[in-house]
Amino acid sequence: MKRIKLFSLLCLGLMLGSTSCSKDDDDDNNNQNNNNVVVNPTDEDDIKETAKYNFFGAELYSNETFTYGKFEAKMKMAYAPGCISSMFLYYNDSYKGNGEVWNEIDIEVIGKEPNGFQSNIITGKLEKKVTSEKIHKIDSPVADNFHIYTVEWTPDYVAWFLDGKEIRRSDASNDTKKQVAALVKPQSLRFNIWSSASTEWVGTLYQKNIPITQEIDYIKVYDYDTETGTFTEKWTDEFDSFDSKRWGRGNWTMENVLERPKNVVVEDGILKLKLTKELK
Predict the structure, then answer these.
(1) Closest CA to 270 of 73, 117, 109
(2) Which one of 72, 108, 152, 215 is the catalytic residue?
């Protein structure tokens, strides 16, 4: 952005005084958090500058798959316009199509909603997916603090929790699309940070907002007993180191980014998924 424009904006800010944005403000407001991602700019100079970069994301996936269970992670999710920060369950062959079913359960922080997250179930097939997205708003930007995100998956329901409070439940009383019954495949547990080409969904990616990082303090997995309807802790990973027997690192393209293994790191007991940029 040209210096004269920056000076004009600074003067305008001083005249108007400091203001804070509510969670329902539009996407062009300056929402700032500890990841230093704040702006969804529209200036032509920013568009040209962004085109000079390649972008790299990260994905962590379990080598083990699960049929039902409880999945909990204490995380500081990342936020920037154009980006997705996530925790999800996924049937590994969903992408193949040709009649293969799609099974997926999502928690996603999307780049048009800094104060909340999206829950979703995806069923059907690659050629015709069935979805049930819902946005859940909270009082502060999700990237400001660690929160505990939990998914419970059983034959009868899927439920999402934030900090121990149930946020959504899909069961026989409201599952009009019969998605819970369609979750028939074992799924891996995954976490990723990437950028979508769908600007209507997540906003526009700009280089000035990158790098950003999703931080994971711990992950817990519980087995589900279908006879008693109870969960039993199976394992916890507190990331004292990276366990390559338990986890893999993504190395594929996700729309605007290349996910690469070196963007998944363990530092001081925290697993970090990094969205980075490099000049072309």
Answers:
(1) 73
(2) 108
